[in-house]
Design goal:
HAD family phosphatase; six-stranded parallel β-sheet; alpha/beta; HAD-SF_hydro_IA
């Protein structure tokens, strides 16, 4: 009998399961350059970690005074991103092991992401993670993206799980805040190590301060078993 009976796990995608942020940065850099913003940097990109693509382009329009519509910007960014994502997205090896370990125990799992549904499914198929992660929620399908809890609550509903029985795995502060707001425990693996002291991460049940370099499937699994036992 698994020590995780009754527990469900909801994964963020970008920066958590897969190292997709370089592709998001490059897609954004290209789109902004085409719209008269030639010097978008990685540091600029880090300000938008963890929020949906739609909310990102809405912020760009305001902050950079872009003339293009939000719809045009969103379509352009998603198109560029998909071109990059299909050819060059890597799953983190320890995260792949973690998914496989949970699958072997029969733990229900979902992906809840700010990316478009098309991008999520393309990446899961391209990395082979779709073999285990078949329940997918995009922020485009709910009223509010992270840090609102909507995507995580929808994922729990699709898994038939109570929020209190769900564990979220996240890399960004808005996602940790969303998990807390949803009433779910959180394993936080900060994508940007310098952000590990962000107040949102203080609510996480397990904070892997060193990010993916420090994360191991076995340590996360053992912590989940202890958390499940403690109720």
């Amino acid at each position: 009998m698994s020590g995780l009976s009754g527990m469900s796990v909801v994964f963020d995608l970008d920066g958590t399961l897969v190292d997709s942020e370089p592709n998001y940065f490059e897609a954004g850099r290209q789109v902004l350059a085409e719209h008269g913003v030639p010097d978008f940097t990685w540091a600029d990109h880090e300000r938008y970690l963890g929020i949906s693509t739609l909310e990102t382009v809405m912020l760009w329009k305001r902050e950079y005074g872009l003339r293009a519509s939000v719809e045009e910007l969103l379509a352009a960014k998603n198109r560029r991103y998909l071109e990059l994502a299909r050819t060059a997205t890597r799953a983190y090896p320890e995260m792949r092991k973690f998914v496989e370990l949970l699958a072997s125990e029969g733990v229900p799992m979902a992906v809840a992401s700010g990316s478009s549904f098309e991008a999520i499914t393309a990446i899961l198929a391209g990395t082979g993670l779709d073999a285990h992660l078949r329940t997918v929620v995009s922020a485009d399908e709910v009223a509010h993206g992270k840090p609102a809890p909507d995507v995580f609550l929808e994922a729990a509903a699709r898994l038939g799980a109570a929020p209190a029985d769900c564990m979220v795995v996240e890399d960004a502060a808005p996602g940790a805040a969303a998990a807390h707001a949803a009433g779910m425990r959180c394993v936080a693996i900060p994508y940007v190590a310098a952000q590990a002291d962000a107040p949102e991460f203080a609510t996480a049940g397990l904070l892997v301060r060193g990010g993916q370099a420090e994360f191991t499937a076995r340590a996360a699994y053992d912590w989940l078993v202890r958390a499940a036992a403690s109720g």
